[in-house]
Amino acid sequence: MIESLLPIALFAFSASITPGPNNLMIMSSGLNHGIYSSTPHLLGIWLGFPAMVVAIGLGLGTAFNHFPFLHEVIR
Predict the structure, then answer these.
(1) Distance between CA atoms of residues 70 and 72, nearest Å
(2) Which pLDDT score is estimated for 47?
(3) What are the residue boundaries of the structural domains of the chain, listed by start?
């Protein structure tokens, strides 16, 4: 457990400072609408992305492999 903590921490740090789609969207929203108006967007990113990672980690990816029509349902 402890031996995997450093790689996970390094990945989380590098993912948080690289300009990915979430970082670019929140930057653009902050510039166009201000910090206060962009707070719900930021909270959605903070809660939604980890929820997605946990769901996939708990086996939701297997469900998508077995039932490909689910991709169309959520699209």
Answers:
(1) 5
(2) 93
(3) 2-74
pTM of the model: 0.58
Distance CA 35, CA 42 (A): 9
CA gyration radius for the chain?
Answer: 16
Tell me the pLDDT tens digit for each residue of 24-51.
899 999 999 999 999 999 999 999 988 9
Instruction: Please report, for residues 10, 17, 20, 43, the alpha-carbon distance to residue 29 in angstroms, rounded to integers and kept in the order given.
Output: 27, 17, 14, 13
Rounded to whole angstroms, the Cα distance separating 13 from 20 reads 13
Decide: 41 and 29 in contact? Cβ < 8 Å.
yes
H helical segments located in the chain: 5-17, 21-33, 35-55, 61-66, 69-74
Unique residue bearing structure tokens 């990816």: 61
